[in-house]
Write a structure and sequence with these properties.
It is a single chain. The chain is an alpha/beta fold. The chain folds into 3 domains: 16-270, SGNH hydrolase (Rossmann fold); 277-423, Rossmann fold, CATH 3.40.50; 455-638, 3-Layer(aba) Sandwich (Aminopeptidase), CATH 3.40.630.30. The protein contains 26 helices and 17 strands. An 8-stranded mixed beta sheet has the order 15-16-14-13-12-11-10-17, sandwiched between helices. Strands 2-1-3-4-5 form a 5-stranded parallel beta sheet, sandwiched between helices. The protein has a 4-stranded parallel beta sheet with strand order 8-7-6-9, with helices on both faces. Helix 1 (16-25) runs antiparallel to helix 2, helix 2 runs antiparallel to helix 3 (46-62) and helix 4 (86-94) packs across helix 13. It is globular and about 80 Å long. The N and C termini lie far apart (59 Å). The relative contact order is 0.07.
């Protein structure tokens, strides 16, 4: 039985001594890092996380950029002691694909660090600033008799100061800002009546949190909901009054592993590492019983039993995720016709067959079927969450496919929703129309696949799609989605450079720079925003900073239309030369020769002089003569269909 302070969706580390002992036997830093990552995928208490973090720090000194992981520099600023939270957050980051480099500002110095352009914070150059304010520091004294209007004015003044700090951090440091909500630990004076009295400490803090949340939404500041989590699990679990008085530790050390999870999932979402697909088992997962043995009529689902209502609630939750853009898939050991009959014949079935992007029901191993599901959806395995009640199946998938998220599933279906909810696999930092339409786009892809099978050749298929490319700049309407795509696209991405909204906004505003997004439509539907192209003006040439495309539109010629547009704009601006860099990563080998296919000629980078000086040794540089360019033919019209 795990501690309630630990992430319950993670498996228990069966033999901690043996696992940690294996670190000493690792032959090199890369092997040691992989063992650290394997241990990090388990429940670890405060002491274990600290021990593992020390090993991680030593390993990263020898292996500063582990393959397949994003490095994120995080600055911790606050009015309480934060050092004890960092190790657990770093370990949690590993299971989210993030290597966290941390700077912890001196106690209580958050204002000075943000406002001073020569501070250690500025020298650290964070990707993310995490701002943590404790309830005593944030307290607003209005007096018990204060009118509602006076309280509102005091709250807005406090929030206005916070907004100035957020803006300064975003503008001067070019980083994302995460603001922690404030747990309501105000002393209760009049019992339940405190909440009805505008000037009571509890009521004022409630109003401050609400105003801060509203302001954060307007300013595109992210929230770490400490107030919500601590209220749900209990303030006594999260906060130790003695620790606060002794060391000004707001979050108690035993809760650090759970707190670290909350930080890590936000960093992962910022880097586009949130999961995109929920793969579901069927028997005893979506319903009680085994449909092949019990028959459709005897399945436990819906009204009449507590278990049946638990399974129905889980299906409702899955459908809500689908409506929010998460793709649903089935991976079940079953006869397909029998499994499908459950969905078409059971009167209380919430999910329907057309809610699933892929439906796999057969008798082969589930690890192999998960590979097929990822391939069918054109997703990486690290985009999948596999939810299965069978511990043997979970263990097999964890061993065979460690990149797939496999939560521990409780025995009682009443807790299925809570488990998936708490695990935070689908954390987002924004939600756009394209996100909401994602699940439908995968169903549209299925119809496109059928059209391809019916076509006599690829040209006839592409011509029959009726494709249209809409081209736009980076503006307030598109910047959220463009930032998302830049930070999560790994395969068809020549540099995999990451950016924040503030950095992207500044890039687009620079005279001469080209910042474009591309949306593809066809006769089957809207594919959404599928491409981004950023090029920096340098004298009489453009240097491609970012060229990427969503893999779901591979093979359609979108990249040809994108480069046609870039060259047309370059020629109109009098630019004679375009340079592009390919920076290899563990995932973007598919674009190693992209510039060559687009008409560029490879040139050897001179690493000793700018702008090539900052390129990795393995990078290649490519050049295009604008005056000699011939437009690439394709089957895509530019403009509305």
């Amino acid at each position: 039985m795990s501690s309630p302070n630990l992430p319950a969706w993670l498996p228990v580390l069966a033999d901690a001594d043996a696992a940690f002992g294996a670190l000493k036997a690792a032959p090199d830093p890369a092997a040691r890092f992989q063992q650290i990552a394997r241990i990090a995928d388990h429940q670890l208490d405060f002491m274990q996380a600290g021990k593992l973090d020390r090993q991680l720090e030593r390993t990263l000194a020898e292996l500063p950029e582990p393959a397949g992981y994003d490095t994120v520099r995080v600055a911790w600023l606050g009015s309480s002691t934060l050092d004890h939270l960092v190790p657990s957050a770093r370990i949690a980051g590993l299971r989210r694909g993030v290597v966290m480099r941390s700077y912890v500002a001196p106690y209580g110095q958050y204002r000075q660090e943000i406002l001073d352009p020569a501070s250690e914070l500025a020298r650290f150059r964070p990707h993310v600033v995490l701002l943590c304010l404790d309830p005593e520091h944030a307290a607003i004294e209005t007096g018990l008799g204060a009118a509602r209007g006076d309280v509102e004015a005091a709250v807005q003044a406090h929030v206005a100061e916070l907004r100035r700090l957020w803006q300064r951090a975003a503008d001067q440091l070019g980083c994302a800002v995460i603001q922690e909500t404030i747990p309501n630990l105000a002393p209760v004076l009049f019992g339940s009546y405190d909440r009805a009295l505008p000037g009571s400490p509890a009521a004022v803090l409630d109003r401050l949190n609400r105003a801060m949340i509203d302001a954060a939404a307007e300013d595109r500041v992210l929230l770490l909901d400490l107030a919500g989590w601590s209220a749900r699990l209990g303030h006594d679990a999260w906060f130790d009054r003695v620790r606060w008085l002794q060391a000004k530790q707001l979050v108690a050390p035993p809760i650090a592993p759970l707190y670290g999870e909350l930080v890590a999932r936000l960093l992962a979402a910022l880097r586009g590492r949130a999961r995109k697909c929920l793969v579901l088992d069927l028997d005893n997962t979506l319903w009680g019983g085994v449909v092949g043995d019990d028959g459709v009529d005897r399945l436990v689902l819906g009204h009449g039993t507590a278990a049946g209502e638990g399974f129905a609630a889980f299906q409702h939750h899955a459908r809500r995720l689908k409506d929010a853009g998460i793709v649903l898939a089935v991976c079940s050991k079953n006869d397909r016709a029998v499994a499908e009959a459950a969905f078409t014949q059971h009167p209380e079935m919430v999910l329907k067959l057309d809610d699933f992007g892929v439906f796999v029901a057969n008798w082969t191993d589930k690890a192999g079927n998960l590979r097929k599901i990822a391939e069918a959806l054109n997703l990486g395995l690290d985009a999948l969450v596999f939810f299965d009640d069978n511990p043997a199946e979970r263990a097999l998938v964890r061993a065979e496919l460690p990149m797939v998220a496999v939560p521990e599933v409780p025995a009682d279906p009443a807790y299925y929703v809570r488990t998936l909810e708490d695990a935070g696999y689908f954390e987002v930092v924004s939600l756009t129309g394209d996100d909401l339409a994602r699940a439908r786009s995968y169903q549209d892809n299925g119809r496109r696949a059928q059209a391809l099978e019916a076509a006599t050749d690829m040209d006839s298929f592409l011509a029959g799609l009726g494709m249209s490319l809409q081209i736009g700049g980076v503006d307030p309407h598109s910047i959220v989605r463009v930032t998302q795509l830049i930070n999560k696209t790994n395969q068809f991405n020549v540099t995999t450079r990451r950016t924040t909204e503030a950095e992207l906004r500044a890039f687009a505003a620079e005279p001469g720079n080209v910042a474009l997004h591309f949306r593809l439509l066809d006769r089957f539907g809207d594919n959404g925003l599928v491409g981004v192209l950023l090029a920096r003006a340098t004298g009489d040439r453009l240097v491609v900073d970012t060229l990427l495309m969503s893999c779901r539109v591979l093979g359609r010629g979108v990249e040809l239309a994108m480069i046609n547009e870039l060259v047309a704009r370059a020629a109109a601006a009098g630019v004679t030369e375009i340079l592009g860099d390919y920076i290899p990563t563990a995932k973007n080998a598919m674009v190693a020769d992209l510039f060559g296919r687009l008409g560029f000629t490879r040139v050897e980078p001179a690493h000793g002089s700018p702008p090539e000086a900052t390129l990795p040794r393995a990078a290649s540089r490519w050049r295009l003569d604008v005056r000699a360019f011939t437009r690439h033919p394709n089957f895509i019209a530019v403009g509305d269909p």
